[in-house]
Amino acid sequence: MEQRQRPTGRDHLTPKSLHWNSRSGPNPDILACMADLSDFYELDALLSDEEQMIRDTVAKFVENDFKPLVAEHFEAGTFPMELVPAIADMGLLGMHLDGYGCAGASAMAYGIACRELEAGDSGLRSFVSVQGSLCMFPIWKYGSEEQKEQWLPQMAAGEIIGCFGLTEPDHGSDPSAMATRAKRDGDEWILNGSKRWITNAGIADLAIVWANTDEGFRGFLVPSDSDGFEARKIQNKLSLRASVTGEFYMDDVVVAESMRLPDAVSIGAPLSCLSEARYGIAFGAVGVARDCYNAALDYQQGRPQFGKPLSSFQISQIKFADMLTQMTNANLQSMTLGRLKEAHRVRPYHISMAKRHNCRVAIDTARTARAMMGANGVSTEYSPMRHANNMESVMTYEGTEEIHGLILGQEITGIPAFR
Ligand code: TGC
Ligand code: FAD
Fold it and tell me: Which of 136, 316, 338, 349 could bond to 94 as cystine, CB 3.0-4.6 Å?
């Protein structure tokens, strides 16, 4: 059989090496010789040296420090807070922002970091997205100089954890209908309302609260120890379990005018934060697909049924071919999005296409991979079912699959079909 050399330097399997030895178990040559095809078009070769270094640093952290803990946290419904200092030390919190203790990395580097984090678990990427894109970004973009200096360095260091309150119990896909109100009272504002399905509510020190006012939509920095502010963890979640999700209530919470984001003056402000986070998800979903594909391939190469490895059956090989093709499509979309963002040409509908497409690829890959692992695939010992469960949330938050389809529909037809 002709052997094609891959950049990994690993050889392809020969037909002979594929034969399972029923006495000695899995042929070690099979596992050792598996070529890493998951970057099929070698797109990572287009990354700069610094971007590749960030990729390798994050991937190593995920492999060595996060993966050994994830099943336990997924089962317990907790996030490994003990890893926050290491996440901060890598410069991942607010990494694509400049100044104020932030790393100032490229948009592509941020995307690649999200990809590697989400290969570990969507909860890990969520933690970084919420802190950097949903909490630090609005301060960086819409905050006063004093607010930036006060909050951003501590948030980049992981000393202050944020949460982003847009969704309400009765208003999810349509945040413009929000019921939370802020009323001006001299130099202060009085906030009333509730936010639900909020990542990190319950562990956050600071909430970015979006509220309607007589002057339009506004954003406020609300410390979680403010009088009248109460946060609770949502306990019965079946998805994204290695991430804390909660709700908070505000009963006449008083905040100073100096805690309002001065440049956030319309619903476009919170929506622009969503664009930042959705961008990260478009990359993260590729990490999920890759992790599931690799898990299923490893498993099937090492498990015989009917006297030979599962991976040697034609049905399995077609599934791997489909998974690899879809994952490659998703990777192409995210990397193209990265270059558009770096050229300042990315538009919300570009991000919608990649978020929607790549989440669909990730969940489909996770479900296929799970099935290819049989009964073992339903345990937390392997990642695909955990990823598939997580993707239910990832497909819902930051705009559902349908909402992103409608954003694309509006761009295609010029007709908004949301209402
Ligand atoms: P619409 O009239 O379309 O727009 C109002 C203004 O906002 C501008 N805009 C955006 N700007 C930047 N980025 C975006 N993505 C933007 N989308 C809209 C728009 O140009 C307009 O500006 P202007 O100057 O003309 O006024 O607003 P609409 O009220 O009709 O809403 C449209 C719709 C449905 C697309 C929007 O509301 C939407 O995206 N809904 C989905 C809600 C959503 O995604 N929520 C996410 C909550 S946060 C979250 O889930 C965090 S998960 C965290 C984790 O753990 O990772
Ligand atoms: P709904 O808006 O009620 O939608 C229900 C269904 O109806 C969906 O299938 C939707 O696509 C469909 N639908 C809605 N409108 C239309 C329409 N016009 N046409 C066709 N179909 C439509 N929010 C935050 O603010 N901050 C957070 O940190 C945060 N973290 C989250 C973490 C998790 C784990 C989860 C699950 C959610 C989180 N969210 C957060 C909330 C999330 O953004 C919302 O759940 C999401 O925007 C959808 O809103 P909803 O759940 O109210 O669904």
Answer: 136
